[in-house]
Q: What sequence folds into this?
């Protein structure tokens, strides 16, 4: 699956002045020499010199098109050969101070182009020498008239060269500036393409007809396709439905975009039951004649299914919490108003006032419990990173719990005892979380037991796992309700349960804490017989898998 946000690497080649450009010039010069020779305008009448030179020029001209004869990108050999041939032409073949001198302008220009000022100085010095030497050779000496003529021609040639070279330098600067700008723009473009391709959000760009022009790898993932999308209609791939499950045309939606439009109410439908919640940002790309850009749209798609689910869960939770809080607050408020009313009566009934305030107080205590449980829940769901893992003795923890809750059990006329197998090993886990789990089991056991008592047990089940449990001889839980005990705000409908205050959050929090330390919790219960809540955990930390082998059922109701 390849991303299609393309990287443009257009030709960066500089259009160089090549020796090939000289070939038509060479051909012209050859014809000119031959023409002059037949018209008797050459200095020499020797056909060997004329045809010899024309022959060499023909070979040179052709060499640009014959691979084996090419000098490649080395210009110096060509330039030297042309300088020598031109010198020969001006000294021995044609009159030195003739218009042939102006061919040197071309050579001087090329030398300046490739080798700068140094090349130009060498070439122009050679020209001066040839002018002087050629005139001397052809005229048999240098008259002052010749010297004036040579100087004048030389100055004109240099002037023409200067003009040509300054024009070409300006051009060259402009061209290299443009090349730098293009290279920079291409670099920026490549970086942008890499960025778009590395984005986890899907990006799709279309033209003004909704035809896809660019997309990234994430777009293929979200559209669930491996096809090449360029040139395809976006509506055929991005099929969206509204919150009411009505089909929507994404391009019709896009067309209504002024500059940017954001929608988080649409879903992409894959099949009948499969869909993703999307956050879609559509931006309109305006037409630009300057940049030769057509109107179009970009679509930025993000999968927000998980976020939506979490948001829904959060909403539901807030709804449930407010519902659970409303009842005790209303009752407490009612009792308080009643107490005030009773206190304002001329005949004060202290007993009645006390009972009313007591009932209100109970509700306030319940609200306190609820707040405690909610903050425990918040810790259990958010404090995973800060959970402190340490090695500790199970014996110490269980003995500590027995000591802590003995008085509370005794107050209710219940026994609380500890049955600890001799070989329970030390464990590596969160001592705080384990204690919270067991405390919850023990408080529930005491709360929901009227006669008998509570037994805390600890035993190794194999070399790496232990089982800790709390059994009671209490009211028990009906079989049909056992799988509901970990639900938030769930409380049994049984009247014996309802006599006791509770939030229905304790076991929900316990389940979260157990998940955090990688432990498994189990419940076994029988109505009017009692219950056993147990936790099975690795002694070596959270990541050790819990043995799935049948765990010996060693907890009996009643704990005796
Ligand atoms: P709470 O005890 O505050 O109501 P929990 O989440 O701790 O909330 O328990 C949920 C429900 O599970 C209780 O309301 C009760 O019906 C049942 N339950 C929990 N522990 C016991 C137990 N040891 N014996 C009988 N029922 C229990």
A:
């Amino acid at each position: 699956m390849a991303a299609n946000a393309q990287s443009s690497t257009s030709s960066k080649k500089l259009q160089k002045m090549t020796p090939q450009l000289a070939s038509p010039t060479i051909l012209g010069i050859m014809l000119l020499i031959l023409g002059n020779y037949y018209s008797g305008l050459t200095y020499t009448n020797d056909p060997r010199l004329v045809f010899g030179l024309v022959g060499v020029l023909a070979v040179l001209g052709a060499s640009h098109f014959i691979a084996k004869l090419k000098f490649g990108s080395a210009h110096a050999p060509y330039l030297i050969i042309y300088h020598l041939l031109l010198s020969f032409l001006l000294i021995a073949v044609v009159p030195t101070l003739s218009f042939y001198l102006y061919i040197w302008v071309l050579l001087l220009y090329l030398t300046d182009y490739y080798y700068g000022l140094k090349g130009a100085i060498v070439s122009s010095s050679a020209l001066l020498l040839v002018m002087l030497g050629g005139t001397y050779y052809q005229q048999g000496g240098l008259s002052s008239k010749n010297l004036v003529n040579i100087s004048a021609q030389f100055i004109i040639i240099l002037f023409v060269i200067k003009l040509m070279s300054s024009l070409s330098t300006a051009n060259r600067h402009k061209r290299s500036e443009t090349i730098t700008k293009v290279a920079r723009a291409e670099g920026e473009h490549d970086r942008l393409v890499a960025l778009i391709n590395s984005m986890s959000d899907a990006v799709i760009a279309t033209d003004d007809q909704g035809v896809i022009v660019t997309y990234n790898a994430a777009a293929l993932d979200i559209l669930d396709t491996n096809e090449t999308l360029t040139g395809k209609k976006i509506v055929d791939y991005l099929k969206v439905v509204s919150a009411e499950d009505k089909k929507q045309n994404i391009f019709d939606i896009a067309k209504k975009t002024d500059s940017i439009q954001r929608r988080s109410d649409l879903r992409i439908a894959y099949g009948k039951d499969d869909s993703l919640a999307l956050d879609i940002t559509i931006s309109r790309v305006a037409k630009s004649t300057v940049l030769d850009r057509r109107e179009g749209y970009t679509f930025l798609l993000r999968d927000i299914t998980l976020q939506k689910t979490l948001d829904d869960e959060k909403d539901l939770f807030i709804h449930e919490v407010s519902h659970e809080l409303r009842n005790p607050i209303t009752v407490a408020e009612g009792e308080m108003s009643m107490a005030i009313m009773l206190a304002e009566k001329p005949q004060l009934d202290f007993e009645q006032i006390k009972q009313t305030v007591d009932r209100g107080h109970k509700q306030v205590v319940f609200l306190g419990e609820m707040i405690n449980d909610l903050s425990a829940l918040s810790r259990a769901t958010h404090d995973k990173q800060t959970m402190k893992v340490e090695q500790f003795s199970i014996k110490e923890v269980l003995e500590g719990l027995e000591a802590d809750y003995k008085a509370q059990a005794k107050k209710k006329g219940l026994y609380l005892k500890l049955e600890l197998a001799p070989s329970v090993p030390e464990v590596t886990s969160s001592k705080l979380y384990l204690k919270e789990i067991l405390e919850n089991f023990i408080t529930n056991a005491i709360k929901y037991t009227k006669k008998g008592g509570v037994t805390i047990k600890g035993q190794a089940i194999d070399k790496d796992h232990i089982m800790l449990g709390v059994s009671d001889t209490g009211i028990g839980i009906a079989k049909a309700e056992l799988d509901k005990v970990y639900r938030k705000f769930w409380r049994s409908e049984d009247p014996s349960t309802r006599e006791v205050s509770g939030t229905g959050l304790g076991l929900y929090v316990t389940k979260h804490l157990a998940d955090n330390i990688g432990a498994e919790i189990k419940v076994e219960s029988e109505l009017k017989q009692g219950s056993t809540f147990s936790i099975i955990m690795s002694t070596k930390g959270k990541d050790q898998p819990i043995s799935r082998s049948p765990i010996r059922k060693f907890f009996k109701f009643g704990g005796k």
Notes: The mean pLDDT is 85. The CA atoms of residues 8 and 186 lie 7 Å apart. Residues 444-445, 448, 472, 474-477, 485, 490-492, 497, 502-508, 531 surround adenosine-5'-diphosphate (CB under 6 Å). The chain has four domains: 5-180, 199-303, 309-380, 385-559.
